[in-house]
Amino acid sequence: MDQVHDYENLVADVLGENMKMCEILQVNVLLKKFPPTWNDYRNHVKHKKRDLTLQELISHMRSEEAKRIKDKKISNSSISIKANLVEPSESSKGRFQHKGKKFKKGMQQKSLKGNDGKIQKNKQLCYCCGKSGHKAYQC
């Protein structure tokens, strides 16, 4: 907040000479005192639709500076934020090795077709009586 103190000293000198400054001029002078790292914030404030009062600008500056200090502390901290990563143990590495892989060329696939070329269906038994050919709701 050195810029605010420099600005206040400058305004005190001007007002000490019995000169008057409008508030918009004071806001623009304060904006000029921002360091080069604040260029994006300065441009944002300059292009707002309505003009800020001096007190509004100072409160915006203080909140922006507090945000920048907080961001700098977070980025400079030695604690890095990492996602919880679960790594497989040695015992479970081979367990899922062939999951989802296609058959190799030498392997034969099970045939669903019977001797006559039609697809075989498993014969289902009735849950109530144990006979095949119908289901329990038909029994």
Automatic annotation (TrEMBL):
Region spans: Disordered: 89-115
Domain CCHC-type residue range list: 126-139
InterPro entries: Znf_CCHC
GO molecular function annotations of the record: nucleic acid binding; zinc ion binding
Keywords: Metal-binding, Zinc, Zinc-finger
Composition skew (Basic residues), residue ranges: 95-107
Annotated protein name in UniProt: CCHC-type domain-containing protein
